[in-house]
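User: Please go through the entry that follows and flag anything odd:
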Amino acid sequence: MFLEKKLEDNPPNADLQGLPVQTLEVRKRREQKEELSIPIFLKIIKKLVMIAKIIKIILNAILFFMIILGGLVFLSSVVFSENIRVFVVKSGSMEPAIKTGSLIFTQKKEDYQVGDIVTRKTDDPKTTVTHRVVERFEKEGKVFFKTKGDANNAQDSEEVQRKHCGKVF
C-alpha cells in the first residue's frame, strides 16, 4: 500500500519540477531536433568543402595545361639558331610516325633523301607542312622534292626546293 501511494504521488509522466507532460514532450523534441540539426549542418559543410576542393583541383589542372600549351606555342615561334626551328604538329597527316600535337624540331641540311621527314613552307608563308620525302629529282640544275603525309593517299602537288625545307630530328 505504501508503494501504491508513492506511485500515485509521482505518476511516471510527470517531471520532477512539476511540469506538465506536454511541455516535457515539446522540450524533448526540441532537444532532439537540435541534436539532429547540428550533425546535418556539419555534413553539409563537409560536402561543400569537398566540392570546393574538387573544383580547386580541376581549375589547377586546367591552369597547368594552359601554361603548358602557352609554352608550346611560344616555343613554336622561337628560332633557337639559324638552322633549328620548333613546330607543333596540327594535323594527323603523319600519324602514326608523328602524332597530332607533337612538338618537333627541324634543322636545315645540305641535302635530303627519300624517306626523310621534312617540314617545308607552302605557298602561304605562314603555313608549314611536315611530310616525308617520297621523290627527289633535279630540274634545270636545281634539286626538288615531292612529299607525302604517311596517312595521306596521294603525294603533295607542290614541288619543293631544298632551301625551303628542314629535316625533323
